[in-house]
Amino acid sequence: MALKDITLGQYFPGNSLLHRLDPRTKILAVVLYIVALFLAKHFFTYAIMFCVLALSISLSHVPLKSLFRGMKPVVFILIFTAVLNLFYTPGEHVLFHFWILTVTMEGVVNASFMVIRILMLIAGTFLLTYTTSPILLTDGLESLLGPLKKIKVPVHELSMMMSIALRFIPTLIEETDKIMSAQRARGADFESGNLLQRAKSLIPLLVPLFISAFRRADELAVAMECRCYHGGEGRTKMKVLHLSKVDYITLIVCVLYLAAFITVNILLPAAIVR
To answer: Residues 81, 182: one domain?
Structure first.
């Protein structure tokens, strides 16, 4: 897996329906999507979620290749999760047994559901960052978390930190790739040996990476100070957020979808989960 395969935090400019939606609408829609995803207990409800995700991807005009490429870093997590659920889920219908390993029908279903859930969760959250610029994402989070200001929660600072973290993920990945190429040119080997040897070989990579990250953070702090940045109080915005008719319709559809989804999930006979 190449470092360039990590697409978390990247923004794909466009003029699709999802790009034009207010960031607050997209954040709330993703939250409702995640709630519905964790409430799903049947193959039919997962099929509904897949159709919603496929429709969202088609409306976003984000290349499927980029979406699949972003899934590569989580392949190990998917395999690890699937193996745990496959061998350690108790059940009545035993399919295979060897020593301390037992595979049951319930374990197969549970592992399948868990892998599908993680993939759909990652794809849905990736769509948010792919179709929303970091600045708009910051403004949307700050607006949604605005009521917390009454209890002295530093909403603007938290939103800014999250936005900067997302913004610098692609930059740090590119910097890591450059450092690895420079180290390989000097004879470093990051791929041979056992797990412990590979971990030790990463030490010469981490030191310059941390130095570069601190330097970039210092440059950003100086740039913000030169522009008289003093927090969110009294600041004006170049792009003021406005909810359009499409945003209201989208929110209403999402709420109705969640209500219908919960109803279907209750009425259908429970499948074997967990």
So the answer is: no
Give the Cα separation of 115 and 98 in Å (integer). Answer: 24
**Smallest Cα–Cα separation from 72: which of 119, 124, 13?**
119
Distance, in Å, from the CA atom of 24 to the CA atom of 15, rounded to the nearest integer, reads 17
**Chain position carrying tokens 């080997």:** 189
The pair of three-digit structure tokens given for residue 266, joined into one six-digit string? 């209750």
Containing H/E element for 179? helix 155-185
Q: Both 200 and 249 in a single domain?
A: no
Q: Give me the residue label for tokens 């759909």.
A: 120
The verdict on residue 138 lying in a domain is no
Q: Is residue 98 part of a domain?
A: yes
The pTM score is 0.76
Residue 39 CA to residue 31 CA, distance in Å, equals 13
Verify that 120 and 254 share a domain, yes or no. Answer: yes
Dihedral through CA 159, CA 162, CA 165, CA 167, nearest 10?
Answer: -60
Residue 172 lies in a domain: yes
**Local confidence band at 252 (pLDDT 50, 70, 90 cut-offs):** very high
pLDDT surpassing 80 at residue 266: no
* DSSP, residue by residue, 243-269: --HHHHHHHHHHHHHHHHHHHHHHHSP
Average pLDDT, integer, range 160-189: 77
Verify that 116 and 207 share a domain, yes or no.
Answer: no
Under DSSP, the state recorded for 103 is: E
Return the H-helix or E-strand segment holding 96: strand 94-98
